[in-house]
């Protein structure tokens, strides 16, 4: 098979199949387990397929374009480092699947667990195989998210949820820093492809942005790899099921940080800043966590701090920045993954068998589970660095590197001292683990009687411990080739000469190892006074501190949000107006303005009188808005003046529409007024009034000025076309009407859709609503008891046929003279509503069609239907046709298909106005009936 | 003529804005009505002002710009629909709470 | 048939709504609605495939040529947005058909009208027609917001409606300014008119600033974003889910105006104002999500994060 495809298939298979266990779990947990194992085994097989070429020294690259415009391609890379991690991920993953099958309770159907685990594995493979750094980042975030789900797997437990949230917060925050760092790195190198970046090391190190880039990337690395001071999430994540801890927290996820350190070493390493930051952090973490581990009574807590400490060791090695230290770092990654995974699994067995992990109670296990105990003791010895085991080899290399480091010539004793102290502490906590758990008398008060675990639950541990031994005794024959290619890929230069051997002669590293062993035993012997000393220290509780900071953060966010957003519409409106004034003012004055010429047309006396009335009406309505009836009347007057303006300025259609709409609006407002309580509105404070007045004056002044400016500006419009085409193309002389039903009929269709929705809304919102009508008006006068005065009713009935005739006339002439569907519809509906007002509900109910939704549908159908008819002739939607027709009385006129459209408009308008107004009127009817029922 | 219309639009806008900033539904309704008058006049004015030139095709006449008239007509009708909806909503709020204050909705 | 494809995303929901209004039976309305939405997914998918050739498809309504009649314009962005809307609409409708639609009346036709408004707003190439589709979209959203009843929804509705009515007034002012200075309303023609010397630049800039304000209000740009979490948090779950795409209408509208008018007329509006405010909006949304006490309110805040997309595709502001 093509090696490109093979490479893409490695994370691809896992991503594509990660839901398989979930889908198969209804066939039982065995099926789910087998599915998970099969997926991982497939990935492992694919990795092994590629392995020979990697061992031959090649680097495999594969690329699929994805978002090339953003520099983001699906490009993958496999070299020695990627191979090493892929093997770890798939190999240990396979063991964890087997282990988890026994570890999780039989009631768990496992599908969810394995699916998240596979997703995590896929993301991990993606991280270690990415060639594109943005792609790496995407996978990096998926590891954070999926590990959140895994840590919170027992989501009914408070501990799990808190631990998972903390892990996500810390690693997610680090991920953000990493994102910023990688964006900077890509900016510096000009590409996100690793091949380019790794080759551009000198350019990157010389760049002005090198320091922020390095710090941001290291933040991502240190949070992920739990380096001090971000280490606290890892012990809290121990609330995860033990298979998860064995996988994520020893072998894979926490290694993603050091992986990135190794990956970017050629690009970022080799500077003083790198040396001090990386090795400093590593050294502090190494010693601090080793010391803390000693005092943990929880087995997994001890292992967690030991993991942090070992990660610190690896970080320190990368920080030491010599070729050999890098080799040692890569070597320790392998060794630590092997022995720590087996230790976590052993801890899980003990937990599983004893029901607790407290080392003060779990004692004397050697007698009860001798095989598990032997395995754990070997693994713990490897952790302590005992010879003949793999941990010893990398620790020796570490000690050798601390001796005579070039950066420390002046104080050449310091680094070896730190290393030796850390070694002593490691021996001490390993010893504590071994002695306390497996010996040290009899168990105390265990919930159940422990014995050896099921045969196959132990198998993964056995395999891993066997590896510890094999690597420890025969390094040259086992691990050496893998280490060679991995270290070479990390360094991107030829490897330094080194020898993997048990015996290097009697030298200083060996002295340090012996010292560490003896000192560790000594420290462990002093444990009782040490524990007593530790007990009286002020307690350090990173979790409560974290929670407190988290709560403070939330409280601060609430305060900020509440301060900005008080939920008040007035404020929103004021903000909107201010925003417009500021942005509009800026836009207007930020560039060249046209020279203003004064408008030419003189205004007659009538214009001034109209202006005077309009100003009086609107100011009056504004100032007297508390006298609501008066305000409505004044606003009505203003509306009439607006209609007059339209008449004067050659817009008869607008004037007619404005008049009819005005009537409807006033009736509407009066109806609303009838129900609204006449409570006195609170007076606004003086500052509020000042603010509102200022906004109003600026808005009004601004509108005035831009109107003047606009009227003075030159204009060339498209409307000549409409005037030319109206008769030949649209078949009507009233250009406005032809525009409405023909040229821009689509707008009109939208508009009657809006109207139809208003009718639906009035149905939907007023349905079953009961509003008690007040008995008195706002001035305390009782409403007239004579609801429908006789004279009005007698006067209005004969008017109905008359107004209907008028509206038919207005409708028919609309295409040629002012009028049309809108105006006719509004006239009809106002006539109907007046009947309703005059004659009461009972009279009107019989005459108003009840199925208004159906009528609306009909009206819209007329408009849409005639528009779609044009489709039959292969023309676009709403294309019209027209011809001459003569009718008696009205005479000859042009009948256009657009008139059917206009008829639809008419039907919709009538239905809507009548539905809305009568719907409002019926509210009181309902309330009335409701009251009567209540009385009877 | 132009100055007169500009003043009218300015005054209507100012009154509308002021009323919209009051705290009750009813003045807001009035304010929106006034503001929509101003906006309609403004949109209408974008075709410039012509006297005695209605856009009805006849021999030898000059015409006002018909397009803004058609747009304003649409805007008037849509505005009416929106006003009606706001009125309905105000009444519903009243029926449900017995209050006609425009805000006081906070997260429960 | 390909020639008529652009109008179908508008005709399908319209026809569905008409059928649904003609019969009040919910089971019938559901069937029609789901069928129409599924058809819509198919049609918009087809449109997206058609648009993938990178050509601009113009559909002249009423067969009137472009600057005079109204045109629908389909490009990759518009087609992709209609597809997204259709898919979302279908899923939301499926969810709502589990019973939410029966907590009030007329849910189904209003839902179709809401889709109609959204799709029209994505497709139209005419500014006034955009206004009309905005109004359709908004009115449908006003009523859907109140669907299911309850005082919280009604009150959130009043804020939302009043604010958007002011927004509509602004939109009309902007349109008046554009027509009054450039003499046209077709987007492509506006771009052409902007290159013709002699028009009033100050007024044109003001017009686009107002237009951007309206779109920013719809999309919830700080400081015009406060209504959004309240409204989306109060709406019924399916309604809020559909609303999530409404903010995108605002952003897509800004993108449209940006390409034709802002880049040539006032690029600093984009780079300084919009990008800065977009970043502020993202920060504010994050704070709001942190402060939220209810899950739906939290999600409502997260809707504001869609401004992050904006800040991603713009260069950094030059402060």
UniProtKB/TrEMBL annotation, chain A:
Topology term for the membrane: Multi-pass membrane protein
Membrane-spanning segments: 6-24, 31-51, 81-104, 111-129, 135-154, 166-189, 209-234, 246-267, 273-295, 302-320, 326-350, 371-393, 413-435, 456-474, 510-533, 574-594, 606-624, 629-649, 655-677, 689-712, 752-770, 790-812, 818-838, 858-878, 898-920
Domain named NADH-Ubiquinone oxidoreductase (complex I) chain 5 N-terminal: residues: 70-114
Keyword ATP-binding annotated: no
GO BP terms, alphabetized: monoatomic ion transport
Subcellular location: Cell membrane; Membrane
MrpA C-terminal/MbhD domain mapped to chain residues: 614-677
Cellular component aspect of the GO annotation: plasma membrane
GO MF, any single term: antiporter activity
Residues covered by the NADH:quinone oxidoreductase/Mrp antiporter transmembrane domain: 130-404
Superkingdom, taxonomy of origin: Bacteria
Domain called MrpA C-terminal/MbhE: residue spans: 688-769
One Pfam short name: MbhE
Domain Na+/H+ antiporter MnhB subunit-related protein: 792-915
InterPro entries registered for this protein in UniProt: CPA3_Na-H_Antiporter_A, MnhB, MrpA_C/MbhD, MrpA_C/MbhE, ND/Mrp_TM, Proton_antipo_N
Coiled coil stretches, renumbered: none
Keywords: Antiport, Cell membrane, Ion transport, Membrane, Transmembrane, Transmembrane helix, Transport
PANTHER family in the cross-refs: NA(+)/H(+) ANTIPORTER SUBUNIT, NA(+)_H(+) ANTIPORTER SUBUNIT A
Protein name: Multiple resistance and pH homeostasis protein A
Species, as recorded: Candidatus Accumulibacter appositus
Gene: mrpA_1
Automatic annotation (TrEMBL), chain B:
Keyword annotations: Cell membrane, Membrane, Transmembrane, Transmembrane helix
Bilayer topology term: Multi-pass membrane protein
Pfam family, one: Oxidored_q2
Main location group: membrane
Location(s) in or outside the cell: Cell membrane
A GO-annotated cellular component: plasma membrane
Gene3D superfamilies: 1.10.287.3510
Transmembrane segments: 6-21, 28-47, 67-91
Family annotation (InterPro entries): CPA3_antiporter_subunitC, NUOK/Mnh_C1-like
NCBIfam families in UniProt: PRK09094.1
UniProt record similarity statement: Belongs to the CPA3 antiporters (TC 2.A.63) subunit C family.
Descriptive protein name: Mrp complex subunit C1
Gene name as annotated: mnhC1_1
From TrEMBL, chain C:
Cleaved signal peptide residues: none
The organism's place on the tree of life at top rank: Bacteria
A GO biological-process term: ATP synthesis coupled electron transport
Listed transmembrane segments: 34-56, 77-98, 118-145, 157-182, 202-227, 239-261, 273-304
Family designation: Belongs to the CPA3 antiporters (TC 2.A.63) subunit D family.
PANTHER family in UniProt: NA(+)_H(+) ANTIPORTER SUBUNIT D1, NADH DEHYDROGENASE
Protein name: Multiple resistance and pH homeostasis protein D
Gene it is expressed from: mrpD_1
């Amino acid at each position: 098979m093509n090696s490109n495809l093979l490479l893409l298939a490695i994370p691809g298979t896992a991503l594509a199949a990660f839901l398989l266990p979930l889908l198969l779990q209804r066939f039982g947990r065995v099926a789910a387990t087998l599915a998970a194992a099969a997926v991982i085994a497939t990935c492992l097989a694919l990795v092994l397929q590629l392995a020979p070429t990697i061992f031959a020294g090649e680097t495999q690259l594969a690329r699929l374009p994805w978002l090339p415009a953003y520099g983001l391609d699906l490009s993958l890379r496999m070299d020695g480092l990627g191979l090493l991690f892929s093997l770890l991920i798939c190999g240990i993953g396979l063991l964890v699947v087997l282990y988890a099958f026994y570890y999780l309770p039989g009631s768990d159907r496992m599908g969810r667990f394995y699916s998240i685990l596979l997703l995590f594995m896929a993301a991990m493979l993606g991280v270690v195989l990415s060639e594109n750094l943005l792609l790496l980042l995407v996978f990096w975030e998926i590891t954070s998210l999926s590990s959140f789900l895994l840590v919170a797997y027992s989501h009914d437990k408070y501990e799990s949820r808190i631990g998972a949230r903390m892990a996500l917060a810390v690693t997610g925050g680090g991920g953000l820093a990493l994102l910023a760092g990688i964006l900077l790195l890509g900016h510096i190198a000009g590409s996100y492809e690793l091949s380019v970046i790794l080759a551009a090391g000198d350019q990157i190190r010389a760049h002005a942005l090198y320091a922020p880039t390095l710090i941001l990337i290291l933040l991502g690395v240190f949070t992920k790899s739990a380096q001090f001071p971000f280490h606290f999430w890892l012990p809290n994540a121990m609330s995860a099921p033990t298979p998860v801890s064995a996988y994520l927290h020893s072998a894979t996820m926490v290694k993603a940080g050091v992986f990135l350190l190794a990956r970017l070493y050629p690009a970022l390493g080799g500077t003083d800043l790198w040396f001090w930051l990386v090795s400093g952090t590593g050294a502090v973490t190494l010693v601090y966590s080793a010391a803390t581990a000693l005092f943990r009574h929880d087995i997994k807590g001890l292992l967690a701090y030991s993991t942090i400490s070992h990660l610190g060791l690896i970080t320190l090695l990368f920080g030491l920045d010599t070729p050999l230290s890098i080799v040692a770092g890569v070597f320790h990654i392998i060794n630590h993954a092997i022995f720590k995974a087996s230790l976590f699994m052993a801890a899980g067995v003990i937990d599983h068998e004893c029901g607790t992990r407290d080392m003060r109670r779990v004692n004397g296990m050697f007698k009860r589970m001798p095989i598990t105990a032997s395995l754990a003791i070997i693994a713990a010895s490897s952790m302590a660095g005992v010879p003949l085991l793999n941990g010893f080899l990398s620790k020796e290399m570490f000690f050798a590197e601390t001796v005579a480091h070039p950066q420390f010539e002046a104080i050449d004793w310091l680094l070896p001292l730190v290393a030796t102290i850390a070694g002593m502490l490691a021996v001490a906590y390993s010893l504590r683990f071994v002695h306390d758990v497996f010996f040290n008398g009899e168990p105390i008060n265990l919930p159940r009687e422990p014995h050896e675990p099921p045969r196959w639950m132990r198998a993964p541990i056995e395999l891993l411990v066997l590896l510890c031994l094999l690597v420890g005794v025969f390094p040259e024959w086992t691990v050496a080739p893998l280490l060679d290619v991995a270290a070479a890929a990390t360094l991107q230069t030829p490897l330094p000469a080194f020898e993997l051997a048990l015996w290097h002669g009697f030298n200083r590293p060996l002295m340090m190892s012996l010292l560490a062993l003896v000192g560790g035993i000594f420290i462990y012997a002093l444990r009782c006074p040490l524990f007593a000393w530790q007990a009286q220290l002020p307690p350090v509780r990173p979790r409560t501190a974290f929670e407190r900071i988290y709560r403070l953060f939330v409280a601060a966010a609430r305060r900020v949000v509440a301060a900005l957003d008080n939920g008040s519409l007035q404020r929103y409106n004021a903000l909107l107006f201010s925003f417009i004034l500021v942005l509009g003012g800026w836009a207007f004055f930020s560039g060249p303005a046209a020279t203003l010429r004064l408008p030419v047309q003189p205004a007659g006396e009538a214009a001034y009188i109209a202006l005077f009335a309009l100003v009086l009406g609107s100011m009056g309505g504004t100032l007297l808005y508390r006298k609501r009836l008066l305000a409505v009347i004044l606003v009505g007057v203003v509306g009439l003046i607006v209609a007059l303006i339209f008449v004067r300025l050659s817009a008869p259609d607008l004037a007619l529409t404005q008049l009819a709409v005005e009537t409807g609006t006033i009736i509407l407002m009066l109806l609303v007024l009838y129900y609204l309580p006449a409570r006195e509105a609170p007076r606004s404070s003086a500052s509020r009034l000042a603010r509102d007045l200022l906004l109003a004056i600026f808005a009004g002044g601004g509108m005035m000025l831009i109107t003047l400016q606009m009227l003075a500006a030159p204009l060339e419009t498209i409307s000549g076309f409409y005037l030319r085409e109206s008769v030949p193309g649209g078949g009507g002389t009233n250009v406005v009407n032809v525009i409405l039903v023909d040229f821009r009929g689509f707008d009109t269709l939208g508009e009657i859709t809006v109207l139809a929705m208003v009718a639906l809304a009035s149905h939907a919102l007023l349905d079953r609503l009961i509003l008690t009508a007040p008995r008195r008006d706002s001035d305390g006068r009782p409403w007239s008891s004579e609801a429908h005065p006789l004279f009005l009713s007698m006067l209005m009935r004969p008017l109905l046929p008359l107004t209907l005739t008028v509206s038919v006339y207005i409708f028919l002439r609309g295409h040629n003279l002012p009028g049309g569907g809108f105006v006719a519809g509004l006239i009809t509906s106002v006539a109907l509503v007046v009947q309703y007002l005059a004659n009461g509900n009972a009279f009107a109910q019989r005459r108003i069609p009840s199925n208004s939704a159906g009528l609306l549908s009909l009206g819209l159908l007329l408009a849409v239907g005639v528009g779609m008819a044009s489709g039959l002739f292969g023309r676009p939607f709403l294309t019209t046709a027209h011809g001459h027709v003569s009718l008696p009385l009205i005479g000859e006129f042009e009948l256009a298909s657009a008139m059917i459209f206009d008829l639809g408009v008419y039907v919709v308008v009538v239905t809507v106005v009548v539905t809305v107004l009568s719907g409002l009127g019926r509210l009181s009817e309902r309330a009335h009936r409701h009251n009567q029922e209540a009385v009877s | 003529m132009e100055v007169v219309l500009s003043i009218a639009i300015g005054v209507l806008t100012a009154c509308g804005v002021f009323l919209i900033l009051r705290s009750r539904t009813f003045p807001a309704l009035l304010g929106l009505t006034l503001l929509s008058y101003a906006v309609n006049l403004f949109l209408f004015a974008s075709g410039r002002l012509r006297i005695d030139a209605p856009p009805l095709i006849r021999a030898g006449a000059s015409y006002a710009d018909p397009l803004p008239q058609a747009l304003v007509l649409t805007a008037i009708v849509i505005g009416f629909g929106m006003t009606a909806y706001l009125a309905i909503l105000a009444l519903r709020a009243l029926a449900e709470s017995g209050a006609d204050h425009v805000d006081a909705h906070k997260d429960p | 048939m390909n020639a008529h494809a652009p109008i179908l995303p508008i005709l399908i929901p319209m026809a569905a709504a008409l059928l649904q209004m003609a019969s009040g039976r919910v089971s019938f309305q559901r069937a029609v609605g789901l069928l129409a939405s599924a058809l819509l997914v198919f049609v918009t998918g087809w449109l997206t495939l058609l648009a993938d050739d990178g050509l601009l498809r113009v559909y002249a309504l009423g067969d009137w040529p472009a600057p005079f009649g109204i045109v629908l314009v389909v490009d990759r962005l518009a087609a992709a947005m209609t597809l997204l809307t259709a898919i979302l609409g279908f899923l939301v409708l499926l969810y709502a058909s589990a019973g939410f639609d029966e907590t009030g009346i007329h849910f189904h036709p209003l839902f179709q009208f809401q889709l109609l408004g959204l799709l029209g707003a994505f497709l139209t190439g005419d500014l006034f027609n955009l206004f009309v589709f905005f109004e359709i979209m908004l009115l449908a959203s006003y009523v859907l917001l109140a669907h299911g009843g309850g005082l919280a929804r009604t009150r959130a509705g009043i804020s939302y409606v009043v604010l958007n009515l002011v927004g509509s007034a602004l939109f009309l002012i902007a349109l008046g300014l554009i027509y009054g200075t450039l003499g046209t309303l077709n987007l492509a023609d506006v771009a052409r008119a902007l290159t013709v010397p002699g028009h009033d630049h100050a007024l044109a800039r003001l017009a686009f600033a107002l237009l951007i304000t309206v779109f920013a209000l719809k999309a919830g740009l700080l400081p015009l974003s406060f209504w959004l979490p309240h409204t989306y948090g109060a709406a019924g779950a399916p309604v809020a889910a559909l609303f999530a795409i409404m903010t995108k209408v605002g952003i897509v509208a800004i993108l449209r105006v940006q390409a034709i008018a802002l880049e040539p007329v006032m690029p600093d509006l984009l780079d300084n104002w919009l990008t800065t405010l977009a970043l502020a909006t993202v920060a504010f949304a994050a704070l709001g999500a942190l402060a939220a006490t209810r899950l739906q309110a939290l999600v409502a805040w997260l809707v504001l994060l869609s401004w992050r997309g904006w800040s991603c595709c713009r260069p950094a502001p030059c402060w």
